[in-house]
Design a protein that fits this description.
The chain has helices at residues 2-7, 9-23, 28-49, 70-86, 89-118, 120-126, 139-144, 147-168, 170-174. It has 184 residues and is mostly helical. The chain is built from 9 helices and no strands.
């Protein structure tokens, strides 16, 4: 069950994204604040992806010195940012539930895989030792880990929230302009 849920997290993310967009009531203020938070989360993900060869090693460099799962921490920060950008508490609850369920399953599934694959090396890493803590960040590694997909997903989510804000007129009213869509 956990492995299946972990595999379905991207598909569930798209479904949750549709619900988030439907329920969102973004304004210029919530969009700017939420985008700033989400970008911090994506920057953490890029940093982590640039220090890791996924499924081929465990590493102790970059953010892995402080977090066991910095990609998931970054995703959680991104989710919090998108919840803020949406301007609705119900969306924050939906995002929190999605992240809690799917990332918990992903972490459990990933840790079981890493323990099976790397055995004692993984346990040593989890104990705060092992790996090369001085490895340098590599943009090529981040690209190889396909982090550009998360960047594109975040950009699309913020664009759609921005379009919804402007369609609702809330963006323009909050920005202090008199531009209002016809009939609104």
């Amino acid at each position: 069950m956990i492995a299946k849920l972990a595999r379905l997290r991207v598909a569930l993310g798209f479904l949750s994204g549709v619900a988030v967009l439907w329920l969102a009531r973004p304004t210029a203020t919530t969009l700017a604040s939420g985008a700033a938070i989400a970008v911090v989360g994506e920057c953490l993900r890029i940093w982590a992806a640039g220090h890791l060869n996924k499924a081929r090693e465990v590493t102790a460099s970059g953010p892995y010195r402080w977090f066991a799962h910095p990609l998931y921490v970054g995703s959680s920060i991104m989710g919090a940012g998108l919840a803020v950008a949406s301007g609705r508490l119900v969306v924050a609850g939906l995002v929190a539930a999605y992240l809690l369920v799917t990332l918990t399953a992903a972490v459990k599934n990933e840790e079981a895989f890493l323990r099976r694959t790397f055995g004692d090396r993984y346990d040593t890493y989890r104990g705060g030792k092992g790996g090369d803590p001085l490895r340098r960040f590599s943009l090529a590694r981040a690209r190889a880990n396909r982090e550009y997909r998360a960047v594109a997903g975040l950009a699309l989510a913020l664009l759609l929230l921005g379009l919804k804000a402007s369609y609702n007129g809330a963006f323009w009213r909050a920005a202090g302009t008199s531009l209002v869509r016809p009939g609104g």
